[in-house]
């Protein structure tokens, strides 16, 4: 975490329960943590296009919701790191829980008939979200949020491993790439927290262009944003395979992965 001695800027004193390692208002007076803010673009823009494409393809609403939930997380994180205000922190952290609940629902409903609704699972996830929200608003303890979020991610990991081990082994590449990128982001998140003083001292001694590469919380955003996006692709690929579509992962401009498919023609 960041040392206490940070400058103030446009948004005034910090009221959030967390202040990350990036130096506050170091780049501009209007953004508290500049790199931690702009790195959220990867969670905002690509999922919007994913949601639009899902609507055009007539996909189930749960996948449209998955893309939009990731965008909401990115927007909330943008607001949080831009202001370091407690209200904006909630706008970042609570949607992380809600989006993961949507991901969990999608993963456990991959092998059901089209447009079916599992009301028991839906109720359980909504109840879980309400309990986490209520407790977190009362205790205001970031570790509680992190543990609850970790439980959801762990559930997704176990489900993904089950699918690539027992159902669709040829999806291991996509599934494990998503997981690996996410875990690399988690590693950098921990390094940023544990070695913050050392990282700040290092950034004082090197040119800014080198110092930027050590903004590991920003890398956490980039890597977990990409990992989450790939997870949605993995979930969607699994679902459309089960529905007997022919999904393919293509790369826009040779860089960004998207999923395209066509219904299986009836003879």
TrEMBL record:
Pathway: Sphingolipid metabolism; Lipid metabolism; sphingolipid metabolism. Ca(2+) binds at residues 19-20, 22, 24, 33. InterPro entries: ACER (IPR008901). Zn(2+) binds at residues 81, 217, 221. It holds the Pfam family Ceramidase. Its EC number is 3.5.1.-. The chain crosses the membrane at residues 34-52, 64-84, 96-112, 119-137, 143-162, 174-191, 218-238. Its cofactor is Zn(2+). Belongs to the alkaline ceramidase family. It catalyses: an N-acylsphinganine + H2O = sphinganine + a fatty acid; N-(9Z-octadecenoyl)-sphing-4-enine + H2O = sphing-4-enine + (9Z)-octadecenoate; an N-acylsphing-4-enine + H2O = sphing-4-enine + a fatty acid. One of its GO terms (cellular component) is endoplasmic reticulum membrane. The gene is ACER3. The keyword Signal does not apply. One of its GO terms (biological process) is sphingosine biosynthetic process. GO terms for molecular function: metal ion binding; N-acylsphingosine amidohydrolase activity. This is Alkaline ceramidase. Keywords: Calcium, Hydrolase, Lipid metabolism, Membrane, Metal-binding, Sphingolipid metabolism, Transmembrane, Transmembrane helix, Zinc. It is a multi-pass membrane protein.
């Amino acid at each position: 975490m960041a040392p206490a001695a940070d400058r103030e800027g446009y948004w005034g004193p910090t009221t959030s329960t967390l202040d990350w390692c990036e130096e506050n208002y170091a780049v501009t007076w209007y953004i508290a943590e500049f790199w931690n803010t702009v790195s959220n673009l990867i969670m905002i823009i690509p999922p919007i296009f994913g949601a639009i494409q899902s609507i055009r393809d007539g996909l189930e609403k749960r996948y449209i919701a998955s893309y939009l939930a990731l965008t909401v997380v990115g927007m909330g994180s943008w607001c949080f790191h831009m202001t370091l205000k407690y209200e904006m922190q909630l706008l970042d952290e609570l949607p992380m829980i809600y989006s993961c609940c949507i991901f969990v629902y999608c993963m456990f409903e991959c092998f059901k008939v089209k447009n079916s609704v599992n009301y028991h699972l839906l109720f359980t996830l909504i109840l879980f979200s309400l309990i986490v929200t209520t407790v977190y608003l009362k205790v205001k303890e970031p570790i509680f949020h992190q543990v609850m979020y970790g439980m959801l991610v762990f559930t997704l990991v176990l489900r993904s491993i089950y699918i690539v081990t027992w159902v669709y082994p040829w999806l291991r590449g996509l599934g494990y790439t998503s997981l690996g990128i996410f875990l690399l982001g988690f590693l950098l998140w921990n390094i940023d927290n544990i070695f913050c003083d050392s990282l700040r001292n290092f950034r004082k001694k090197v040119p800014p262009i080198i110092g930027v590469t050590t903004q590991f919380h920003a890398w956490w955003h980039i890597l977990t944003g990409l990992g989450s996006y790939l997870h949605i692709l993995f979930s969607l690929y699994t679902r459309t395979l089960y529905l007997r579509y022919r999904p393919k992962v293509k790369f826009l401009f040779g860089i960004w992965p998207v999923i395209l498919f066509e219904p299986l023609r009836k003879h």
